[in-house]
Amino acid sequence: MSNLKRKRGTETHKTSPKRRRPGLENVSDAASIPRKQSLEDGVANEEDEYAESEGSVQDGIMEEWSGISEQGKNMEAAGHSGTHTHKPPRGEELRDIKDAADLYRSTSFKLQIDVLLPNIRPKYARSAPLERFLFTLYTFLKDLSPVAPQHPLSASRDLLKKGIAVPYPLPLPTEDTNWKVSFEKPSDILLVGSWAVKMSVKAKDQRRYVADVAVTMPETLFQEKDYMNSRFFHKRAYYLAVIAGAVSNKKSGMDVDVFYESASGDPRLTTLVLRPKHGMLAHTRIRSASHDADQSAVDFTSLNVEVRIMPVLPSSSPIPLQRLSPSRSNIRISSNDAPSPLCNSALLLCTTYKSHMITMHALAESVPAFADALALLRVWANQRGYGVGDRLCMRHFDTRGPWWAAVLELLVNGEESLPGTTFHKTAKRKPLGKGLSSYQLFKAALDLLARHDFEKEHIFVKTNDGHRFPPEDYALHEAVFVDSTSTVNLLAGVPLSALEMLRHDAKMTLDILDHSNLSEDPFDAVFMRDKRDVATRFDIVLRLNLSSAKLRDPNTHASVEHGSAYNALLEHLVSCLYRGLGNRTKAISVLHPAPQARPVSQAHPSNPSTIHVGLLLDTEHAFRLVDHGPTAEEQDSEAAQAFREFWGEKAELRRFKDGSIVESVVWSVSTADERTHIPVHIARHVLARHCGLIGDAVRTWQTQFDSVVRLPESITGIYRTTGAQTGFKAAMSAFDELVRAMKGLDDRIPLAILTVSPIAEALRYTSVHSPVAAPGPVIFALPQFARYVEPMEIVIEFEKSARWPDDLRAIQKIKLAFFEALASALATSIKGLTASVVVGHGAESSDIADQACLEIVTADGWAFRARIWHDREAILLSRLIDDKPHIAPHMKRQREGDPQERQAALSAQEVYQRRFVHAPRHHRAIAALCHSFSAFAGTVRLVKRWFAAHWLLRGHVSVEAVELLCASVFLRSAQSTVEGLGSPGSKERGFALVVELLKDWEWSQGMYIPLYHGTDDGGDKTPAVTVTAGAKTGVWALATELDSGGHVWTSSGPDAIVARRIRALAQATWVALQGMESGSFEAMTLFLHPLEHYDFIIELDPAVLPRYVQNVRADPAIWAQRAKYANTRADAEDVRLCPGFDPAQAFFDDLKRVYKDTFILFYDPLGGDRFGAVWDPSLKAPRPFRALGGFSSEPIRKEGKAKDKDKALVKLNENAILSEIERMGAGLVKNIVIRE
Question: Residue ranges of the alpha helices (H) in 596-698?
């Protein structure tokens, strides 16, 4: 906590005044539901106070604005501009401003907290109906008739006849049970919990506030041995059932709905929930001991609150608390006398409600910022699933309300010093004091959660009289956090894996608060944003169907200890995963729906048959191939036997290169993509062996996502059978061999080669499909629609020479000569290599731009496309654009020369800068990210596939722009002080984070990506970057250190229309990703493109498309039909390798060039067999005819005269355009579908 500043003094932020309840001077009586008269007085006083405060506010408003009166007019006439004079801030105001900056992160952050806090709390001033209902309940419970002692089964049968089930926990009573249950009116009734001290916080998803009522059971109902075998919980369950039967009786007059609810699915913690009925009577008859009278409304529906009744144990009960030590065994149902710490803690918890409420009240009185800090902490936790809600929640935290307050209590009062213990440091945690602001206390709590090691260090909050049980008694608890009453471990039953997830979230939040600059507002990310989305929160999500689960070693003692067999199964499941995955994961979280209220006719909760397990990977260890166990010398030890028992048939003795022989578990993989599945393989093996979950009972989505970036199995089988080289490593090896061969030709070419730089996405691990070589046998074996080979672009830089000409056209001719010499040298020096010079690019040609390349095909079938970089071109192009750069632009006369030549020079300069300056730098930076983040390359491949599947890649969004978007997600964590914090550990999570970015990104403001930070290209300092979004052709601005404008890769798109469509597609994809929680999610649906928004669809013939097998929806029937005629042999010309030949892409480029002002065209460049087009809506309206209008038009016919035409007005000639498209695509276009 040394980094936290402490400022003594009072809290600058004040919430609404804390109103004392009647008799609050005696804190022990403060929470008691008061007698009728005192309650009425309290409500009346409260309403008066509320009205008074409302009136003061209104008076203040009226005083501030009094309109334009005569006095105001006179003041204006006197020279005043209004009724208010601008005065400098007073000293007190200056101190408040300084305190806001010192005690909070900033003044704006404090203002946001001031706005947040009133909106997350209930309207206590309007709680009069609830107070009256609580008084009614108090009177009703006090007047209940006693029930004579009887056998528990007989008593439950009597209640069942009335429709009330008794929620007896395990072990269930039997006919041989020799103890009895009974009912007597409560000895005390207290309003406890956060509602009693006015610290309730709004839960997620409109869940109700809770008003806890502790009903103290008389001590005469219990015996000394009731701590054995859950006997206390049986008597508590019967007591609760009797109250449920009485309240639900129509003659009771309570007029509420009654439910059972069991926290964490534990029947021992069952409570009774009372909710106002819909349409509750506006007036009800309230009975009193002295008189009956009509009272005002008791309908508290508007408060959105429910009343929860909890039977508790009296402090004077005969059950000895020393018998409830965590090391004691109080479950004697078998020969197993193991301690029962969880059962004992559950019983102790029933004695702490009043003391916890008193502690919270005392802290709120002594620490001004305590209530606000607790509210901030609870909001932060709720946004991350550590509370109840309609979506999946973190298991174990739905009942930890007192623990959040205890965390702040630990910071304020400090820790108990317990020197010499095994799980405790000798130096205790010192108190931070009582003068911190709410933000400082909140941040200190996060610091505690982020730094504390719950596995190694136990926490004992400071007490007045020391702790009841010695620290050694808590050895069986995974985590220990003993409250200040020295009664209960507030983290009993919480596994370390869940606390590690909490630690990770705290670290993430602290990193956001500590490393966001003043221009960034972290308030939204910390308090306002919902962080419960499993797709963006976890690297791997397992969906487990527990209906077929069966423990390898069933344990009755564990079922009783955890409250139910279901809870015991979940705890065993988590412990097995935690042990099996080890340091491969940072955290393992069990996600399940929050506890649901059930009818009182149902004894036990309905446990969900499906749960989710989220894994947060540690990428440094997650994909390890071998797990080591004990050595061969320890074969007979208990550790070796436990290792073999845990892993089963996967465990084996292995000798390693260093000569060691150890027990090992080896996970075999054949590709790099399969290596990312190792954590899932481990989870499947462990769950199948120890929990009986096999096959479809364990479901993940990794394989589904893998399938969208892989070729069909029938095609990859051809590559395997022919022995073709595949994969990114093989492509990199082929590139290295080509570079060595080129540099060995110095004596055969005019200039020596200095560097050969790759700029192809396949050479930086980010192409959608793995690169493949296509030698002659492979090309011949592949069908026509699978013969596409992507050439990998490289840039060659020769040594400096003064013999280069000083003319742009001559430089292009010299490049051709170099290509010819290099091609001849390579062909003669490397057997089987072919090289040919390619001139021109599409329909556009320029004699000053770089348009020539050397196409190289190696003997192994790898294709490269080489270009020559000559730095003198940049200077010559700049001179052609501006021959007088030393003169200021506003002083220059009208430029001389041919404007078309200048425009050609501008286009050539743009190509030069992008191809030879930015592309190599971008390639190096992206390749470095692939090495720094194991999931980066896979994420880029998935996101590119998503853009391509939705007909946006290359045609509207460049591949480099996609890579920058993905880099922005991963580089958020690059500046963190904790390495790898927050960076995705799987491509699936990375993909979801990019989709989240696209759906929320305000692209009009641009984006800055520190892509080159700390590299040789970018340096260590971050330069000033000016992001200007809103260009006509490209509205995205993706700025880097070397591109301050942000339009190098977005100058040609997307435009505003496409950018809005990308956001709409991302939002729809995000909604589909939420299906992971319900089990309805299928990864392929994210890549299926909707067609209803296009005006017409151009359908192509898949049989003539060499890339069709890359289509995300490729139809196997097409090549299956082709395989029927395997005996037909094609001519050699038909199987000639044509790198980069894609007729669909060429046709798309032609249409886009010809009809750029007529319609917007969309196409999937990865095997797409359809074009989608949207007419320019401005062309559909009639307009006057003019020559060179830019689109095909036809005259508009006059109404009523079919033959006469109005030559003055024309409209878009859609039929002619579609006919021309069909003619241009003859042999390629199969059909054109016009959509209405």
Answer: 638-647, 672-675, 678-691
* Nearest partner of 537 among 581, 587, 573, 578, judged by Cα: 587
Cα 433 to Cα 1194: distance, rounded to the nearest angstrom: 83
Q: Which CATH architecture has domain 534-625+671-699?
A: 2-Layer Sandwich (3.30)
Domain boundaries, the chain: 120-279+297-338, 367-518, 534-625+671-699, 630-666, 712-883+898-917, 933-1077, 1089-1234
Superfamily assignment of 712-883+898-917 in CATH? Answer: Beta Polymerase, domain 2 (3.30.460.10)
In this structure, the dihedral spanned by the alpha carbons of residues 1026, 1032, 1037 and 1042, taken in order and rounded to 10 degrees, is -60
The answer to whether the CB of 370 falls within 8 A of the CB of 439 is no
In a 13 Å sphere around the CA of 703, the CA atoms on its Cβ side amount to 7
Instruction: Tell me the two tokens of residue 1037.
Output: 């601005």
Q: How far apart are the first and last CA of the chain?
A: 66
Strand partners, 150: 181
Question: How large is the greatest C-alpha to C-alpha distance in the chain, in angstroms?
Answer: 116
Q: What is the DSSP string of 219-263?
A: GGG--GGGGGGGHHHHHHHHHHHHHHHHHHSGGG---EEEEEEEG
pLDDT tens across 959-994, in order?
999 999 999 999 976 555 556 677 899 999 999 999
- pLDDT reported for residue 1024: 52
Omega into 171 within 30° of 0, i.e. cis? yes
CA dist 1 → 105, 116, 379, 440, 522 (Å): 16, 26, 22, 10, 21
State the architecture of 367-518 in CATH terms: Orthogonal Bundle (1.10)
pLDDT in tens, 809-849: 999 999 999 999 999 999 999 999 999 999 976 666 788 88
Q: Kindly state the tokens that stand for 1229.
A: 């276009």
With contact defined as beta carbons under 8 Å apart, do 577 and 683 qualify? yes
Q: The whole model's pTM is what? A: 0.88
Predicted confidence (pLDDT) at residue 107 exceeds the cutoff of 50: yes
Whether CATH 3.30.70.3030 fits 1089-1234: yes
**Residue type, position 610, single letter:** T
